[in-house]
Amino acid sequence: MSDALRIIPLGGLGEVGKNMTVYETAGEIIVVDAGLAFPRDEHLGVDLLLPDVSYLEGKRVRAVVLTHGHEDHVGGLPYLLREVDVQSVIATRLTLALVKSKLDEHGLGQAAELVEAGPGDDPLELGPFRIELVRVAHSIPDSVALVIETNAGRVVHTGDWKLDHTPVDGLKTDVGKLAEIGNRGVDLLLGDSTNAERPGTTGSERLVGETFRSIFPLRKGRILVASFASNIHRMQQAADVAIECGRQITVVGRSMRKNMNIARNLGYVDIPEGAIVNPGDAAQLPPGNVLALCTGSQGEPMSALTRVAYNDHPTLSVEQGDTVIISAKPVPGNELHVHDSINQLARLGAEVLHEEIAPVHVSGHAYQEELRTMLSLLRPRYVMPIHGEYRMLAAHAKLAREADVPEERIVLAENGSVVELARGGVKLVGRVDAGVTFVDGLRVGDVRDVALRDRRRLADDGVLIVVTTLAQSNGGEVAPPELIARGFAESDELLAELRAEAERVVRELSSEQTIEIKILQEHIHDAIGQIVYDRTRRRPMVLPVVIEV
Asked: N or C: which end of the chain has fewer CB within 10 A?
């Protein structure tokens, strides 16, 4: 059997998100990370994007090794475990806790053995693979790079990282360990390329805490801080400053509450019990006594901050004198959603601070000088940029050339490329299928083609189309909706009831100035669908259409 190591990226190259890389040698397979990506506007009816794992179907995976707990690295794990025979999942303490919660939600708690590992532990012996974890700083605790050794050579897979000299938890990227690994000899480096176009170095996470310390004492109204739900250190710093200023803390958004509870239980976050109140109680406090940590930094249509922006949240609101801090950078493709939220919050009278006008966010990914440092520490024979759009991969390749890595030893691969490491070197040897799998969130865990689901529903129950017109130029006036039924053979009385219900919903939301299209569509969909099911026990496809004029 050949000693060659085949490396097959199934996601994360030419894109930001859905990171997954297959390592295969001597008849054994490990997978590094199992991420997801979020759909863009053109992905109608799609809730999540996953790597195509058809290459792994019918094969046995010795282990999935996770570098850290961000969704673009672990969010696809439940779907992978449904489709592929995986023996074990290996991760650091916090990452494993986040993953366990996710698997339990999907009913997959027993699908694979969960194994905790950490930097400083003995190397993992997984058949022909020997894997060592190296601590790196990132925007979530317990992030690691991987050193993967086989008979073919030594590979370093960096995961997401940066050189933070003053991290919140004091745990820096282990530069000494990386230098020692470089002295052993590195045959191939797979390196994070997200910020390869950006000169200089990324700021320390503590800079955001210092900004909070300068902003919070000057504000008299509510303060809302929106960030990724997994940014534990950001939440800790905001909470620390809020407590110093005499504010109570409320956590809004399901994923943020879940992550906060896990992090507090494991000791990664230290917030006194008396400092936290539930959102309902926070609504009764004077505005100047409240800090709300919330989801929605990416303008997600049904997230906490977006619902607040459009007066659709049951407990949290903003008004003149409040401050909203968006402590995250928009993921490529989300910029318009974020700008819409900012505009709407400003209309309500809130001051909105974001990274373009205030230092309220720092990246978790290495800039050019840090990437140069990594190249000088490891001195790899070959370099394969990963984790980024193609322009980012190309920028990382340029840095490698400047670090005296010969052009012929830089591998610019794509999803599905088969890269082979052998004693003779590294080369591209072929391709496998590596497309995109769409997930319809209406059926959690269903990885089947969305189009097939829609066709089945149309054939069985028909379609109801609710059309209404939103006059943005006339103060957001909403026209009475029209109802169009196809393949839905029900009585005129029921159709009249549905029209009346649609008009009630539209008028109610319009009177509350809730005119964000996604929220209008969601409320119309839910109200019509519920009445149809109550009356007929059928679930036709309900398509709310809001036309802006």
From this structure: N
